Amino acid sequence: MAGDQRFFHWELEFPEVFRRGGFDAIVGNPPWETVKPNSKEFWSNYDPFFRDLGKQAALRRMAELRQDPEADRAWRLYSLTIEQTSRWLRASGLYLHQGRGDLNTYKLFLERAYGLLRRGGTLSFVVPSGLYTDQGATELRTLFFERGAVRSLVSLENRKGIFPIHRSFKVVLFSIERGGASPAVPCAFFIGRDAQGRDLAPDLPALRAILSDVEEHLLPLPLEAVRRFSPDTLSLMEFKNRREMEIAAKIYDNHPLLGEEVPGAWNVRFTTEFHMTNDSRLFRDRGWLLAHGCREVELTSPTPPTFGAPLSLSDVGEGEGGRGGEGEVRRPTMWIGPGGERYLPLYEGKSIHQYNAFHEEPRFWVNEAEARKALGLLPATKGDYQRYRLAYRLIARSTDEITLISTVSPRDVFAGHSLAVVVSQDETLANPVGQLVASAIMNSFSLNAVLRQKVSANITMFYAYQLPFPRLTVGHPHFDALVVRAARLTCTTPEFADLWNGVARHYPQEMPAPWRPVLPPPGGGGPGRGSTDPGERARLRAEIDALVADLYGLSEEDFAYILTTFPLLDRDQLPLEGEPKSFITRDQALLALFQLRQRRPPQDIVAFFARAGADIAPVTGPLRDLEERVRRAWELGAVAYIPSRRGGTVEEE
Question: Which CATH class is domain 11-33+104-240?
Answer without folding.
Answer: alpha beta
